[in-house]
Amino acid sequence: MKKYFILLVISILTLSCHENKQSQQLEENSNTYLEESHSYAQPNNAVITHLDLDINVNFETHVISGTATYDIENSDSNQIILDSKYLEIENVTQNGEQTEFDLGDFDESLGQPLTVAIQEDTKQIAITYSTTAQTEALQWLTAQQTADKTHPFLFTQGQAILTRTWIPIQDSPQIRITYDATVKVPQELMAVMSAENPKEKNENGVYQFKMEQPIPAYLIALAVGNIEYKAISERTGVYAEKSMLNKVHEEFSDMEKMVVAAENLYGDYDWDQFDVIVLPPSFPFGGMENPRLTFATPTVIAGDKSLTSLVAHELAHSWSGNLVTNATWNDFWLNEGFTVYFEIRIMEALYGKDRANMLALIGRQDLEDELEALKESPNDTKLKLDLKGRNPDDGMNSIAYDKGYLFLRTLEEKEGRDNMDAFLKSYFKKNAFSTTNTEDFITYLNENLLDKNNITFNTEEWIYQPGVPENAAIIESDAFSNVEKTLQEFLKTNEIEVTKTENWTPQEWVHFVRNFPTDISVAQMQQLDDTFNLTDSTNSYITMVWYEQSILNGYHGNNVDTKIAEFLNTVGRRWYVTTLFSAFAKAERIEEAKEIYKTARGNYHSVTANTVDEMLGIE
């Protein structure tokens, strides 16, 4: 008994130290909030600190309703302002008493400011509300839109500023809160959140959640469906529909190894649990790094672990993004550039430098494509953006991800990997559970890496100037060089040695297909398709780039047009969908694209649908 008592005391002291550390860091970083153009909140006057959410999920009416109760800190203000969009606000109280509230003018991107009257001694406000049919964060799916086709499904997507469409909240990345939640769902379904989660269904359909680490609003996430859990290790596991569970478990079986590799690089994993839920195919992103529970697209389930760099990417966000968050969406590159760098380091640690460099080179090609697409708006190719008056989604592209990565890789080559790793480890530790901005990062970089080692680096050019500086790291891959040689030989001779391709990874196939010249003939594409069955590839990434080339080059063989339409009606991943619709536009096949979109749009989350609407000129 004495032994267990001592262990209990140690555990309590450890937890207390952990909480004190978080509290101290929050206090240090919450004295002054930056002006923020994507939230109506005025946190320097009054700010939320904890959410207690009590909601009911109604699949018959497609409505979430309930009460969001907030603990607040008040700096002698008589009001607190939250963000709300497409919500019905029914009642508001402060310190348990009715209070006045006002919904301001509506903005198409930002929604409305929800202004609540408070007093100097107000410690808590409660908002009773319900979502509406226009709520953008939610996607309600019928049973037919799921893998098992037996039960409906619901998931949320809050990034960047959509959490305000399902919870009235101060929806700014620099405002971090803890939360508890009670979620009522139909008894046959399970609810999971970005918090401590159940591992199996209960009998009454009421689930309790707790997130003890402070997070920004965009990382509050909910999924409800007929799902099951399967552990990979004590701290990692997967959720999926029953028919997908074993496939997902096998595909992501290296998750614990990834966590260990990440910890070896940049310090302890501070979120206790790292699970992944594979959602129905309409999920608009490859993955979303919701703490403790990454949301993922089923398009990464290839059967050979070839696309699991996505898991490494979302895991890396546990440090860059979730632990240390961009203060505003103008600083988005601090989330994604760091995460791509970290992801590739994890992949190198587990699978070797060749695979890591292939991933980096594909990103480099994506960056060149993005630079070309943005040549008429060069300011959008800067790392530090000015998105005032625009939707922050406009900055969520290859500039933040791949130019951000290239900046850090170039810095690593200048400084040396050991120095770079020590710097990043200290950066994550110093800023843990807080937010930072580009200017503070530059100061930290100068003081803790460049000046310390007497190094001169063109940081300002990388961050504040358009395009890619001349000193960018050159990324090479022997594997890709061989792929390019094979492609050139085929284009000259119309012959290809199948044996040369037998051991190609999906990344090599993607590189092969993406590098088709503009004058490749239909006959040559037919030959490749007949030889390698590319139209019916089981790897979604290869399929996507092959379909893109088919559209651009007028290839119609092997029923590819029908397969493209089926793909666009099934897959809602925004990257894939917009790539193909963009190819239709470039090929001047816009009417064909619109015909496909008529049936496909209903399968897309609003994040994807809104992007395609704009691309195709649909109002």
Quick take:
GO terms for molecular function: alanyl aminopeptidase activity; metallopeptidase activity; zinc ion binding. It is built from 18 helices and 21 strands. It is an alpha+beta fold and 619 residues long.
- Under CATH, the homologous superfamily of the largest domain reads tricorn interacting facor f3 domain
What is the helix fraction of residues, given as a range?
25-40%
Q: Any idea of the CATH topology of the largest domain?
A: Immunoglobulin-like
**Shape summary:** globular
Strand order of the largest sheet: 5-4-8-2-1-11-13
- Estimate the mean pLDDT confidence: 94
Strand content: 15-25%
CATH architectural arrangement of the largest domain: Sandwich
Measured between the Cα atoms of the first and last residue, the distance is 70 Å
Q: Show unreliable segments.
A: 1-30
Number of helices: 18
Tell me about this structure:
This protein has helices spanning 2-29, 242-251, 255-266, 309-316, 333-351, 353-373, 398-415, 417-430, 438-450, 459-464, 478-493, 506-514, 522-532, 540-552, 560-570, 574-586, 590-600, 606-616; strands at residues 46-58, 63-74, 79-84, 87-94, 97-98, 101-103, 112-117, 124-131, 138-141, 153-156, 176-184, 190-193, 206-216, 222-225, 227-231, 236-241, 274-278, 287-288, 293-296, 324-326, 434-436. It has 619 residues and is α+β, with helices and mostly antiparallel strands. The chain folds into three domains: 32-133 and 163-223, tricorn interacting facor f3 domain (Immunoglobulin-like); 319-464, Neutral Protease Domain 2 (Neutral Protease, domain 2, Orthogonal Bundle), CATH 1.10.390; 478-616, Serine Threonine Protein Phosphatase 5, Tetratricopeptide repeat (Alpha Horseshoe), CATH 1.25.40.320. A seven-stranded mixed beta sheet has the order 5-4-8-2-1-11-13, with no helix packed on it. The chain has a five-stranded mixed beta sheet with strand order 15-16-17-19-18. A four-stranded antiparallel beta sheet has the order 9-10-14-12, with no helix packed on it. β1 and β2 (63-74) form a beta hairpin. α3 crosses α5 (333-351) and α5 (333-351) crosses α7. The N and C termini lie far apart (70 Å). Its main location: cytoplasm.
